[in-house]
Amino acid sequence: MIRLREKNKELSVKEAREKVSDLLKANRAKYNTDEGYGIIDGSEEALNHLDYGKVSLKRVQKILLLSDGLLLPVDHGEKDAWAKSAAIAFEKGLDKLLEEVEKREADDPDCVRYPRLKPKDDKTGILLEL
């Protein structure tokens, strides 16, 4: 979508998404298969794509779980959206992370500054403090 919109600045998010819809559908058909990637969706197949084991929690103070919709949108120059999202959540809480994500989405409804597939996504997060 980024390349499409760089070639045609007038192309809307909706139009760009329509142009890549076949690719998106093909990718979705590969969820939880060996050819695709794992999605925790409650299906039997999802269990085959989970990593599990034991980790010592001796020095762990917080555990953060986020859906991709609660990941901070970043522009081309910014790096490591995950680390930035985690820093906000750990230092200021999930409410502040949600505020920042929603602010960036609202400031960029056409998905130009922060390239993404759609202007808004569902947002889910859990911050466990031990």
Characterization of the model:
The chain is mostly helical and 130 residues long. The protein contains five helices and two strands; from the N terminus they run αααβααβ. A two-stranded antiparallel sheet has the order 1-2. The longest helix is centred in the C-terminal third of the chain and has 14 residues, at 94-107. The model has no long low-confidence stretch (mean pLDDT 91).
Provide key terms for this protein.
130 residues, two-stranded antiparallel ribbon, 5 helices, 36% helix, mainly alpha
What is the helical fraction, as a range of percent? Answer: 25-40%
- In sequence order, what are the helices and strands, one letter per element? HHHEHHE
Biggest sheet strand order reads 1-2
The total beta strand count reads 2
Question: Which structural class should the secondary elements be placed in?
Answer: mainly alpha
> How many whole angstroms does the radius of gyration measure?
17 Å
Uncertain runs are none
Write the layout of secondary structure elements.
Layout: H1 2-7, H2 13-19, H3 21-28, E1 62-66, H4 81-92, H5 94-107, E2 125-129
Helix pairs in contact: 4-5
TL;DR?
The chain has helices at residues 2-7, 13-19, 21-28, 81-92, 94-107, and strands at residues 62-66, 125-129. With 130 residues, it is mainly alpha-helical. A two-stranded antiparallel ribbon has the order 1-2.
